[in-house]
Amino acid sequence: QLVESGGGSVQAGGSLTLSCASSHRTLSTYAVGWFRQAPGMEREFVAAILRSGRNTYYADSVKGRFTISRDNTINIAYLQMNNLKPEDTAVYYCAAGASITPEDGRSYHFWGQGTQVTVSS
Questions:
Q1: Which residue, 29, 74, 79, 32, is CA-closest to 55?
Q2: Under DSSP, is residue 7 helix (H, G, I), strand (E, B) or coil?
Q3: Which of 23, 40, 82, 93 is the most buried (most CB within 10 A)?
Q4: Residue 59 to residue 32: CA distance in whole angstroms
Q5: In whole angstroms, what is the distance from residue 76 CA to residue 6 CA?
Q6: What mean pLDDT is reported for the chain?
Q7: How far apart are CA 5 and CA 27, in angstroms?
Q8: What pLDDT sits at residue 72?
């Protein structure tokens, strides 16, 4: 069971940091990804980080603005989002998997319920 937090409403250019924690599993043993889904749109990959934290992956749309990180000592993963744009508005989901293809949501085994991010212009 994964739990996301940190969503909210901000104006364009603002920042938010999302957190992903596990209530039943040791998150440090899994790769973690963030995905998002806007109304009427398919779920899309945002970012991923492997277990060690040394390898990260980003969608082109968020490169240079978003940073994924993790703290394995407290089993939490983060998504720092800067310079937010209205098109970043979506429900953001964290997911975890043992052996992932970063952009492929089907390779993740555990998902959170999502947290809403709304960016106004």
A1: 32
A2: coil
A3: 93
A4: 14
A5: 13
A6: 96
A7: 15
A8: 93
The first and second tokens of residue 27, run together, are 């998150």
Give the integer Cα–Cα distance in Å for 49 and 34: 9
Q: What pLDDT sits at residue 85?
A: 98
3-state DSSP assignment of residue 100:
coil
Tokens 């809403």: give the residue.
116
Q: What radius of gyration, in Å, describes the C-alpha atoms of the chain?
A: 13
Residue-wise pLDDT tens digits, 9-48: 999 999 999 999 997 778 999 999 999 999 999 999 999 9
Residues, the chain? 121
- Three-state helix/strand/coil letters over 38-87: CCCCCCEEEEEECCCCCCEEECCCCCCCEEEEEECCCCEEEEEECCCCHH
If one counts every other C-beta atom within 10 angstroms of the C-beta of residue 23, the result is 10
> What tokens does 57 get?
């992956």
Structure tokens at 89: 């508005």
